[in-house]
Write a structure and sequence with these properties.
Helix content: 25-40%
Largest sheet: 8 strands, mixed
Low-confidence stretches: 1-11
Shape: globular
Radius of gyration: 24 Å
Structural class: alpha+beta
Distance between the termini: 86 Å
Number of strands: 18
């Protein structure tokens, strides 16, 4: 992609070369020119009305008319919907389009350098464009500062923003040296170490989980070929498994965040246009402005308010594929899930249906049997329910504590999901000293991966410097999480966020009631036991 002012018209929003949907740009596996820019107020979009409602004040890209936009089946759970869809889907079926892509800003400026005083963007030493930041969200407790300016002034950057006659208002600042080169340096995993522990060691190899370390990309494995070329040649479809670390200033965010990524390798190693499938609660107003959506990786990590990279380090295992089919299947399925998510057939719940749960459930439904790590302690959850109720003085909090102990850790903890999914991938293709898996024993997606993965890389993203405290590697277990939270609740750093009620007018009549949580049964059993004991005592007294 050419530099921002290549046609001599650097500050005109009409300049076609700087549009977020300009020729040569992409959204993961999709050609950006197959989309148009709009906002959630669009009235002629194929996107669901529920999806558009969340993005009324946001710039989004929607598929052009005639595109095969992902659908959904009314009156069924999201997992059942994907399962039935995948069972009848032909192997060579085309890529379905998402209901929308959250691009956040209409223009993109590549190959820029931020001046040392952070007042302008310099392009090729020829043109300086006035520069300012998008406004900080009021609840966001940290912001771009002198350390941020110094960091970005040292490298070329890609900026997503809005052009005005006065210059560019930046929404996203992306370091262009965060890339996956076609032939990255090799890092051999220890053959004597189980893949789960090898991945955990990579994540925790540096102080603070690499939060203050340089970006790094390593090739972990490459399939042996008669004529071996670069591990990650341009044009290869990729599937990424991403986990974000623990925040340093939020005691509700030590567990990190999990997401699945699809995209395509580039000749220059650029990865900012890969598509991250971010699932996040729709029913609260995030203090960072985070919205659940498919969005470019540079937005996901480096949006000045919502970017995960401003809060903590991040890590990704990337599989490059000889054939597009696995990435096409996965992304098409996730698009279908987004439809059910926006209309509240699938409801986010921190203990039982969070970013990890939703993502891992999709992988398993598609036939990738990500190992089940098991619950933290279901016996403790069961016998401890009265204690939780007495100490928390809240039935809702007691139920949440029960669910955290009862839920499979792979669905609960982002780091556990990352380790088990990454290790399963390494096992499927026989890396890291594993013997490889019998592809016939696995489902459709697992068979595709076992056959098609050409190379696997590990990427470590540092935290972007700002006034925020540095984070670290994510907690792997609920026990580790508890050690990071102050014993005195009054000392915990928590940002209270306002609710965002889902309008009754947007609820479709086919929506099924929310599935029962395990804690519902526990509460009912304990209520019955207490009622029985009270009845017996009353009988004895009478």
């Amino acid at each position: 992609m050419s530099a921002f002012p290549a046609n001599g018209n650097p500050v005109s929003a009409a300049n076609p070369e700087i549009s977020a949907v300009a020729p040569g740009r992409s959204f993961g596996l999709y050609d950006a020119q197959a989309f148009r820019l709009t906002t959630g107020t669009c009235r002629d979009c194929a996107s669901l009305r529920q999806a558009l409602w969340y993005f009324e004040r946001e710039t989004i890209a929607v598929p052009l008319a005639g595109s095969p936009v992902a659908a959904f089946t009314p009156g069924v759970r999201a997992a059942d919907d994907v399962r039935a869809w995948a069972a009848t889907r032909k192997a060579a079926a085309p890529l379905d389009y998402p209901p929308l892509v959250w691009v956040a800003a209409p223009q993109v400026a590549a190959g820029a350098r931020l001046t040392s005083d952070a007042t302008a963007l310099a392009f090729g030493g020829r043109v300086n464009v006035p520069f300012r930041l998008t406004p900080k969200i009021a609840l966001n407790r940290a912001w771009f500062d002198g350390s941020s300016a110094a960091f970005f002034a040292q490298r070329t950057i890609k900026v997503r923003g809005t052009l005005t006659p006065e210059g560019i208002v930046a929404r996203t600042l992306w370091p262009e040296d965060f890339r996956l080169d076609p032939a990255p340096s090799r890092h051999e995993l220890a053959g004597s170490e189980p893949p789960v522990e090898a991945l955990r060691a990579l994540v925790r190899a540096l102080p603070l989980g690499g939060a203050q370390s340089p970006f790094a990309a390593y090739a972990l494995w490459q399939r042996e070929r008669p004529a071996a070329g670069p591990a990650f040649p341009p044009g290869r479809a990729v599937i990424g498994i991403m986990v974000n670390g623990a925040q340093g200033d939020d005691d509700e965010a030590h567990g990190g965040h999990f997401a699945l990524v699809t995209g395509r390798t580039q000749a220059d190693g650029a990865i900012g246009d890969w598509l991250v499938n971010n699932f996040y609660s729709l029913d609260v107003e995030s203090e960072k402005g985070i919205l659940a959506a498919p969005l470019p990786l540079d937005n996901y990590l480096a949006d000045l308010n919502s970017g995960q990279g401003w809060y903590r380090p991040s890590y990704m295992v990337v599989a490059a594929l000889e054939d597009d089919r696995a990435a096409v299947l996965l992304q098409s399925a996730l698009n279908r899930v987004y439809n059910q998510f926006y209309r509240h057939q699938l409801v986010y719940q921190h203990a039982t249906m969070n970013c990890s749960s939703i993502s891992v459930d999709v992988l398993r439904v598609l036939g990738w049997d990500v190992p089940v790590r098991g619950p933290t302690n279901r016996l403790l959850a069961a016998v401890g329910f009265p204690y939780f109720l007495a100490t928390q003085r809240s039935l809702a909090k007691a139920r949440t504590a029960f669910d955290y102990l009862h839920e499979d850790q792979t669905r609960l903890m982002p780091a556990a999901a990352f380790e088990e999914t990454g290790a399963s991938l390494l096992t499927l293709i026989g890396a890291a000293g594993t013997a490889g898996a019998d592809a016939k024993a696995h489902g459709q997606l697992a068979r595709m991966l076992a056959s098609d993965v050409e190379a696997i890389a590990f990427l470590r993203f540092p935290q972007l410097p700002s006034s925020r405290e540095f984070g670290s590697a994510p907690a792997v277990t609920t026990w580790e999480y508890r050690t990071l939270v102050p014993a005195d609740p009054a000392e915990a750093q928590i940002v209270a966020v306002p609710p965002r009620p889902f309008p009754a007018g947007l609820r479709d009549p086919d929506l099924l009631p929310a599935p029962r949580r395990p804690s519902d049964i526990a509460a009912a059993v304990w209520a019955a036991l207490v009622a029985g004991v009270l009845a017996w005592l009353l009988w004895r007294w009478w």
